[in-house]
Amino acid sequence: MCSEISIEPAFALSSQQVDPATIQIISQPTLGSATVDNGKIIYAADPNTTGTDRFQYRFCGVSSIPDCEVAQATIEISPIIAQDTTLVNCTTAGSAIFNLTTAQLTQDDSSLSKKYYLTRAGAESQNETEEIPNFTNYQSTGQDIFVRLESTDGCVAIAKITLIVENVDAHIYSDQYTVLHCDEDVDYILDGIYKVKLSEITPYILTNPAAFTVKYYESETKAIAGLSDYLNDIYSFTTQKKIWVRAEPKAGCPAVISSITLKIGNKLPLLQNTVIKEICSITPETPATVDLAQYRTEFTIDPGAQFTYFNNEDDARKNLNPIANTAVQVPGSQDFFLRIGINGSCQTLAKLQIQVKNTLAPEEQVEICPATKAILPAPAGYTSYLWSTGETSQSISAEAGEYYVDYKNEDCTYRKYFKVQYYTVPVINSVEITGSTVRINASGGTAPYTYSLDGKQYQNSNEFINIQPGSYTAYVRGKEECQPTTYKFTVVRLLNVITPDENGKNDFLDYSSLLGKEKPDLQIADRYGNVVFTGNSSNNFSWDATHGGTKVASGMYWFLLRWTEPNTSTVTEHKGWVLVKYRK
Questions:
Q1: Residue ranges of the domains in the chain?
Q2: CATH class of 494-580
Q3: Distance between CA atoms of 137 and 45, rounded to whole angstroms?
Q4: Cβ-count burial of 429 within 10 angstroms (0-12 exposed, 13-18 middle, 19+ buried)?
Q5: What is the CATH number of domain 427-490?
Q6: With CB atoms counted within 10 Å of each terminal CB, which end of the chain scores lower, N or C?
């Protein structure tokens, strides 16, 4: 039944006629109401009720002995429960096209037939002149439409559709979004991951963003369904990407769906991504000062390019701690990282490798003979030379001292230090004369030494034999054979016999010539080593063969004669014997 039904009681087991006056409801239905009217039971379902309802009633027959029965009525309630609804369309054209079949009038109207009319009266009377034939493509500026719904069991309901036209542009202009995305967008990080703030796309594609609830999806299916797993506002991607936007008009119009392509911009093309530069330094103990900006054209010749410099790659990628002053101190080889960009292109990462080249050559030590000069050569093949002496030749002649030379080519200035030192020459410490043998004692310098008494003929031995009394010069050379060290000495004629007879002849051993020497010394001893005479200035280095005022005995005595020539430190030494003999 749709909403109301009439039941006329009848006996199932008796032939008596029903006495209308005896009809009564003994248990009421739960989904509607049952009343007795003129020998009939009228059942009316409650509004918008569906399901199965039951009630019991009793009646009796017309007779002196009436029969009575109790019956149960079972009612299947299946009315058309229709509800009015509204369709809203958004347009700036004034009128909109509506598909009236999209209006939800019942919970399930698939089994119902529907006809659309301009008025309620037309729907109720099925006035063909008011029926709308193009109900799937109906153009309207806004009005009420009435729908007649009929079920297969004859139930009928009338529902209203209110058509509303909102003056809202509900079109998504996807082609207006032409932004090219860069790696550094949103977070300024160069990591190969592109980011976009989706809410910033909306003003490009909707003329009135505030009139919509906008959501972005990774698939068209999700966008159409309007699922809750829409994209976060910050969306990341690594390649060109298509996403879908769902714009839901707040005015109630249907949602509109469109795709948007997220395009990747081109990075600024560089001449080279890694530049290696060698910096020359003649002071390696102090950092080199380098202006990083001077190498801009190594990366790009575009005058509009913008450079930012960093000390390490991580800071460069994250845009942290940029170098404020491009004139930096480089203690050694160091890598710097750059972000380079220009309006209309994406930033790109580059590396500048500074290699500090030590152009200070090792010091060269040069040894030369005293009173000579060394030839100091700078390396050949350079464009200019400047010595610490002011000379500009490739080589200079230099005495002992410290020098340096700066020599240049197109790329670098080099420096080399020289230390010129004289060889240490031998020193003649003493000349020992024993009889006719002369021994020259030397030290210092570099052995082996060679010796000479004429400056021409040199020998390895420091002893010279059979040397006659006279004046000589001792020559000593070291291994380097530089100008020899010299010492003038005298081989004196020694007195070997004195006859102290006081006859005025050969009474004294006279070495008074020692008074003109420095540090003169004369010692005379007997054969037992007892000193019997010491010469000095008071006795004029002359011995009269006495010891303590007493004549010494005849015999052999030994003497040591030593002195230093003026203005030298070399000692001349004579050793020998003297015979004291008394005449009878």
A1: 4-77, 85-166, 174-264, 274-358, 360-422, 427-490, 494-580
A2: mainly beta
A3: 37
A4: middle
A5: 2.60.40.1080
A6: C
Instruction: Give the separation between CA 90 and CA 211, rounded to whole angstroms.
Output: 11
Give the sign of the dihedral formed by CA 515, CA 517, CA 521, CA 527: negative
CB 423 within 8 A of CB 482: yes
pTM assigned to the model: 0.54
CATH architecture of structural domain 360-422: Sandwich (2.60)
Give the contacts of 263 (CB within 8 A, at least 6 positions apart). 178, 179, 180, 181, 240
Please indicate whether the domains covering 360-422 and 427-490 agree at the CATH topology level. yes
Please list the pLDDT of the chain residue by residue as tens digits (584 residues). Answer: 677 889 999 999 999 999 999 999 999 999 999 999 999 999 998 877 888 999 999 999 999 999 999 999 999 888 888 899 999 999 888 999 999 999 999 887 778 899 999 999 999 999 999 999 999 999 999 999 999 999 887 788 999 999 999 988 889 999 999 999 999 999 999 999 999 999 999 999 999 999 999 999 999 999 999 999 999 999 999 999 999 999 999 888 889 999 999 999 999 999 999 999 988 888 877 888 899 999 999 999 999 999 999 999 999 999 999 999 999 999 878 999 999 999 889 999 999 999 988 888 999 999 999 999 999 999 999 999 999 999 999 999 999 999 999 999 887 899 999 999 999 999 999 888 887 899 999 999 999 999 999 999 999 999 999 998 888 999 999 999 999 999 988 787 777 888 888 887 888 888 887 777 788 899 999 999 999 999 998 888 889 989 988 999 998 999 898 888 766 777 888 888 888 898 76
Q: Per CATH, is 274-358 categorized as 2.60.40?
A: yes
